[in-house]
Design goal:
It is found in: Cytoplasm. Homotetramer. Its main location: cytoplasm. It is a single chain. The protein has about 140 residues and is α+β, with helices and mostly antiparallel strands. The chain contains seven helices and four strands; from the N terminus they run βααβααβααβα. Strands 2-3-1-4 form a four-stranded antiparallel beta sheet. It binds adenosine-3',5'-cyclic-monophosphate (CMP). Adenosine-3',5'-cyclic-monophosphate binds near residues 53 and 111.
Length: about 140
């Protein structure tokens, strides 16, 4: 079914000037960008996004990293968008990511892992509305 997912190109990948190469991978896989913006997150916005990880030992480092530079948040739309994007990204830890995946090619560490993607259609809905109002999404 046609789905939407939230993608974040993280500060490490933006700093590497890899925005275009990453978006090209989405497009070549049949995902369409239906919303996009560049943001420099503050502690509240990044911490709220990752609220489910609040008690994890890596939470402070995660928020510190996600506020270290600008990110590009996008809504991707397409057939099985959530799973398609997760396949394109590869494993959370780039050391475990399959060759040819975004994280294998652009990420260095589990913290600086280039991209975020929603892990289910339910989290996609929540994550999309965390960053975008309905009138910022352009179905096409
Ligand atoms: P992301 O998909 O954005 O969701 C949470 C992030 O926490 C994850 O990518 C990683 O970048 C980061 N992280 C750091 N340490 C861990 C860990 N041990 N397990 C899962 N995620 C981690």
């Amino acid at each position: 079914a046609t789905e939407r997912t939230l993608s974040i190109i993280k500060p490490d990948a933006v700093a590497k000037n890899a925005i275009g190469e990453i978006v090209t991978r989405f497009e070549k896989a049949g995902l369409k960008v239906v919303a996009a913006k560049m943001l420099h997150l503050d502690n509240d916005k990044a911490g709220g996004f990752y609220a489910e990880h609040k008690e994890r030992p890596f939470f402070n480092d995660l928020v510190g990293f996600m506020t270290s530079g600008p990110v590009v948040v996008q809504v991707l739309e397409g057939e099985n968008a959530v799973a398609t994007n997760r396949d394109l990204m590869g494993a959370t830890n780039p050391k475990d990511a399959e060759p040819g995946t975004i994280r294998a090619d652009f990420a260095e560490t589990i913290d600086a892992n280039a991209v975020h993607g929603s892990d289910s259609p339910e989290s996609a809905e929540r994550e999309i509305s965390y960053f975008f109002s309905n009138d910022e999404i352009c179905p096409r």
